[in-house]
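To close the section, here is one more complete example, presented without commentary so you can practise reading it yourself. The ligand is geranylgeranyl diphosphate.
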Amino acid sequence: MSGFNRWLVRTRQAVEKALRSAVPPLSTRPASIHRAMRYSLLSGGKRLRPVLCCAAAEACGGTVRGAMPAACAVEMVHAYSLIHDDLPCMDDDDLRRGKPTSHKVFGEAVAVLAGDALLTQAFALLAAARPRARYDAADLTAELARAAGSRGLIAGQVADIEAEGRECSEAALYFIHAAKTGMLLRAALKLGAMCAGATAGRLAVLDRFGFALGLAFQIQDDILDSTQSAGTLGKTPGKDAAAGKLTFPAFFGLERSRELSAYWTGEAVQALRPLGTCGETLRALAALILGRDH
Ligand code: GRG
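Output:
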């Protein structure tokens, strides 16, 4: 196993352990909400955002341990967004990560509340974080709020819903995906760097990397969605196209989407240059993320 693969296994294990203890156990009343929170949070995602957060911390001289509260907070926001995105009033999905979606198992009311509770708990974690010099818990909280709020994730989701079945511009396509996918990836990287006390210059480097990585990741996701099976993806494929969603393959076709994915991958790698050898793990993660099949 390569040094990077060993790092990845170790870091993912540390993330899983931290996530398990970051939400109340089933013995906390009411058990139903904690069961639903744990079902979605601990159901085997790729943990890309927490791992990027930890790698960014190390690239800036910090530690995985120091970045862990922020890494868990970002994953909780991600888990909340997936629960809500799968609801009948949004994408109406039955399958996520190869398992029934939260509302299919627990009913809509508990699923909505599990998402709300995970989002709330994410900010509680950050409020208790003790980052290094330059930043405090309020800075971390503001960063995550910016990414998750109505100028970030939610902006992307609303623009996505409003674009459905309509003729839209290339700018609208980029806006939706830079917000829906890019904002949380950028926040994961910046929060990791902030936990390490990184300079504003370093944060800007990671932000540029996250922006390009987010676009490459989303284009790749759209391509996978239109070319892979439910078994590989762990979710129902082709739903976006069927719903008239504004995706990269729908707008540009598969061939051009593949070129764009390669272009933004190149931009992401280029953005890491100022980090020199400190950016090695992030570079390896970008290659892994963009070579994935689910
Ligand atoms: C606030 C309801 C709400 C939604 C915000 C994030 C989002 C918008 C919706 C979630 C669905 C979606 C298609 C998001 C785009 C980003 C993306 C491809 C998410 C899947 O991320 P992975 O592949 O998932 O990292 P795992 O399962 O590995 O954690």
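Once you have examined the tokens, check your reading against these statements. The first strand starts at residue 95 and ends at 96. Residues 45-46, 48, 81-82, 84-85, 90, 97, 153-154, 156-157, 180-181, 221 surround geranylgeranyl diphosphate (CB under 6 Å).
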